[in-house]
Amino acid sequence: MRGDDVTNNGNTAAKSGNPFKLAGSQLDRVRDWWAKAPGWQRWIVYIGLIVGALILPAPWIGAFMSPYSDWTTVLFFPIGIYILMAIGLNIVVGLAGLLDLGYVAFFAIGSYSLAYFGTQYGWNFWATLSIGIGVTAISGVILGAPTLRLRGDYLAIVTLGFHEIVRITANNTDEIGGARGITNIPHPPDMFGTEFLFDPAPYYYLILATIVLVIIFSRRLEISRVGRSWAAIREDEDAAELMGVPTFRFKLLAFAIGAMIGGLAGAVWASQANFIAPTSFPFILSATILVAVVLGGSGNLPGVMLGAFLIAWLPERFRGLAEYRILFFGAALVLLMALRPEGLLPSRRRRAELAEGTGGMGSMGAEVAGPTSDPDVEVSSK
Amino acid sequence: MTEPNQAPALLELANLTMAFGGVVAMNEVDLTVREGEIYALIGPNGAGKTTTFNVVTGVYRPTTGEVRFAGQRIDGMKRFRVTKTGIARTFQNIRLFHNMSALENVMVGLDAHHRTGALGAVFGMPWHYREERRGRERALELLDFVGISGRADETAKNLPYGDQRRLEIARALGTDPRLLLLDEPAAGMNPAEKQSLQELIRRIRDDGRTVLLIEHDMGLVMHISDRVAVLDFGQLIAEGTPREVQNNPKVIEAYLGAEADAS
């Protein structure tokens, strides 16, 4: 980031003088180029990214990226897991516009499902993974069904409470190990002649494949009727309902899908971690993933992935600064949010919505009421 | 207009009262809109016109009384279900999805009758692509129908005011309504725009839809309506052809107040 700022400073700083804004406009330019890029250019980028991801664990990259801890391990957790969770939370927060502060509850439920069924019944990885995803989807519906009638702040509070309920329940249920947690969680079976044991590399490729799949799913949802309905709900829930969108059902769907991806991430993580306990799922993790989504640019897949990557990687990279790294990290977040509140790589639409929220009515003349001012759903007509 | 209204009733409000605490916004209103007509609802500000729309579209549940649509009771029905049974509306204050393109706005309306769910979209089922393709074609047709075909890819909020009103109508038509409710569609339009709006409303009716309209522009109302109902303080004070209503002393009083007595 810093490097970007310095180079941009030279050529165009005269205009605005704010290096952050300039770096931001560069990022916007990248996004706009992408929106217009023809198919073959996109495929080149896709292939480049996949090749890049495959060679990423190489030691010479690790030497620079993670001088203090094992690079491949860092790539699996936190980086890979954070990216996967950010994609899932992006569906809830970025696409459907629902604020979920307890997302890690689903991560925990996925982990516990895999751990419990794997250790108690000895079922294999794929069976327990499927159960984990199923259980989290159901828990998403259980949380969503009574609460999605709430809007905004209230929903956030309820999700926060849900996370606490899950954590405390895990802490007090002996059946799943109570405060001691669950140990000896089975690893995934051998695949393609590779053993899943304590070497992090196979897990990295497993999470990479999972992320690619989830990106495809998420993107397909976004550009379908489902994504359109979410966008409509985000913009004007009442108008959407009156245009025939079953808003409650679609919000519940967003919750369930987001939960499934969180559960998937939790299950994959637990299979590598070998040991889980209630303390593995602190509230701060929910907050961190939310920061990743918002910082990256909620609603835009490359953005939230970039955000998750930075949030996961920066503290590892600067482990040498010991305790101070958290201080610098926090300061960097505050600075970034102050200077580019819409996130690093926001979607064009989300960015416009945020701008409206802060009162920038832009091109909408005085005669056109915004979505918040004097809705028709009012007692008397003018 | 030429023949008397013998078509079957499409929308019926029976003895309908809508009270908010002590405020009675609609008081024992009986109203019947027949299939295929253009029906106007007029009245001074605060007379209960938009409340009527809100009751019909399921935003409010009436305090007492019934709303029937094509013989079926729809009061208390969920709002999106009311839309699916064939009632669509526009809003007095434009409420488009501002940051979506014009085309996407219309497609949200069309989605009311689409069936693709999350699984169909995620696994790229053929019916999903078929619906998307047909939806896109139909949306372009509708944009063309309301006269803004060149604006499909523009963001809704960047459209000129009159086009936003037209886009709202296209979005409502997307849900394929039998009854279209227009809440002050001509507000803020210049005479030329009003003229073409008038033609548009006629074409919508000629397409086999029924139009219920709230409008303050009396010229427009008297010109295109088959029948007119007048609300005042939540009461239905007159109903009939434009000519009948215009000459009704109660209506003159409601609009001109004491001046009517003085003159």
Secondary-structure map:
The complex is a heterodimer of chains A (382) and B (263).
Chain A: H1 2-16, H2 19-36, H3 39-55, H4 59-65, H5 71-95, H6 104-120, H7 125-147, H8 153-172, H9 200-222, H10 225-235, H11 237-242, H12 247-273, H13 283-296, H14 301-317, H15 324-339, H16 348-357
Helix pairs in contact in A: 1-2, 5-9, 5-12, 5-13, 5-14, 6-7, 6-8, 6-12, 7-12, 9-12, 10-12, 13-14
Chain B: E1 9-20, E2 23-34, E3 38-42, H1 49-56, E4 64-69, E5 72-73, H2 79-85, E6 87-89, H3 102-110, H4 118-122, H5 126-146, H6 161-174, E7 179-183, H7 191-206, E8 210-214, H8 218-224, E9 227-232, E10 235-240, H9 242-246, H10 249-256, H11 258-262
Parallel strand pairs in B: 3-8, 3-9, 6-7, 7-8
Antiparallel strand pairs in B: 1-2, 1-4, 4-5, 9-10
Helix pairs in contact in B: 3-5, 3-6, 5-6
In a few lines, what is going on in this structure?
The complex is a heterodimer of chains A (about 375) and B (about 260). Chain A has about 375 residues and is mainly α.
Record keyword descriptors for this entry:
heterodimer; A: about 375 residues; mainly alpha; 16 helices; about 70% helix; disordered N terminus; disordered C terminus; B: about 260 residues; alpha/beta; Rossmann fold; four-stranded antiparallel beta sheet; 11 helices; 10 strands; about 40% helix; globular; transmembrane helix (chain A); transmembrane (chain A); cell membrane (chain A); Branched-chain amino acid ABC transporter permease (chain A)
